[in-house]
Predict the structure.
Amino acid sequence: MKPQLTVDEKKDIIERYKDGQFVDTIASDYARARSTIYKVVKQHAERKGNLARKTLFDEKTRKRILKMVRKDPSIKTKKIAKRLKANASPGTINRFLNENGIFSIGRQNPLRLID
């Protein structure tokens, strides 16, 4: 999997698109699919210029997630999502945990490595 485009790369894509460059040209310059370029343009329009990923969890929710995992390191992200009743996928919760230094070993019965 290719690394995510940086915010600066996304800005450049938007500028080039606005300047009328062909999507095929932009895509080949970044070695990405045309659909990726269109997604960046669409995100820009939907987020009114904010190209960074939006923060999904507020501080209270972040603390609740971390508390749940520290209390039960084998809890599944599906169960966390259900308890939170948040509009977040298990993958989003897993990414949040990884960003906070909590990594999962195994899928069926995860064991989380907590610092």
In short: The beta strands are 103-105, 111-113.
